[in-house]
Specification:
alpha+beta; single chain
């Protein structure tokens, strides 16, 4: 397996503590706003696939699917700069999440849609799931610049993880462990994860999700995960069934100086273990 050179993992001090928690919160809400644009104009799909954000390897950014014929919304994580793309190209009038309330984000959307003669009435801040991390209203302001170091660290995690996950995906297909359909690396807005899914059985649609979680209340720092994908269709939520034995924390990666190849092999072993246990 060919292993490309990628940046070192960031200093763990930038991925722990109150500042990282706030940076993750700010970035997660930027992702929510991207998803709101896509959800307003695209037909709903199972597992909320219509609001997935594809990782752009060339620019190290996240981008929505195409809506309104030629529009997409893109996000650069280090500065939390969000902007429209027309026919795949960035256009002027970016929005930065600094010293502005969430109400300004909605106003920016409406103005940009108006400039492109799109139906503003379809835009909604509603999402197909609920999150305790929704940041809405017009009283509290975003403050991304104060968290620049943590946001840059998160961006490096995404760059390295996307490269690693792409190689895991290719290896699983090449060795016939999964159905031969290579899927893009995407960010799932609900849980703020970066990853992909592999199909074990095209007839039954059994899937395994592999990715990087940016952290949660129980595990506040980023970690890799391998888990069966189960969708709660009644509640419209995507439940992450995270078994501790199938998690790989960045603390473990950095403390043990694990190479990219070793991380890739560990994730592949975890997928094989799930397949053998048939716990889907």
């Amino acid at each position: 397996m060919e292993i490309s050179v990628s940046p070192d993992w960031p200093d763990l001090s930038k991925l722990t503590g109150a500042n990282y928690k706030r940076a993750r919160y700010e970035a997660h809400n930027a992702v929510f706003w991207m998803a709101r644009g896509a959800h307003s104009y695209l037909e709903a799909e199972d597992d909320n696939r219509h609001i997935e954000l594809e990782w752009q390897k060339d620019s190290n950014t996240l981008r929505t699917k195409i809506f309104c014929e030629n529009l997409q919304v893109e996000l650069s994580l280090p500065e939390l700069e969000m902007y429209f793309c027309e026919d795949g190209k960035k256009v002027k009038h970016s929005f930065w999440f600094d010293d502005r309330t969430p109400a300004y984000v909605e106003a920016w959307y409406l103005v940009e849609l108006l400039h492109r003669d799109k139906d503003q009435s379809k835009f909604s801040a509603t999402l197909p799931f609920h999150s305790k991390d929704f940041f809405l209203g017009d009283t509290e302001e975003h403050d991304a610049p104060a968290l620049a170091a943590e946001l840059q660290a998160l961006n490096v995690c995404f760059i390295k993880s996307a490269d690693i996950l792409a190689k895991v995906n290719s290896d699983l297909i090449a060795n016939a462990h999964v159905v031969s359909i290579e899927r893009p690396i995407v960010c799932k807005p609900e849980h703020f994860t970066l990853g992909f899914e592999v199909c074990l059985d095209a007839r039954t649609g059994r899937n395994i999700a592999i990715g990087l979680n940016t952290g949660d209340d129980l595990r506040p720092s980023p970690f890799f995960f391998v888990t069966p994908n189960r969708t709660n269709k009644h509640q419209g939520s995507h439940a992450l069934d995270l078994n501790p034995k199938n998690l790989l924390f960045l603390e473990t990666v950095t403390e043990n100086k694990m190479s990219d190849e070793l991380i890739i092999n560990r994730l592949i072993e975890q997928v094989r273990s799930l397949i053998d246990e048939d716990k889907l």
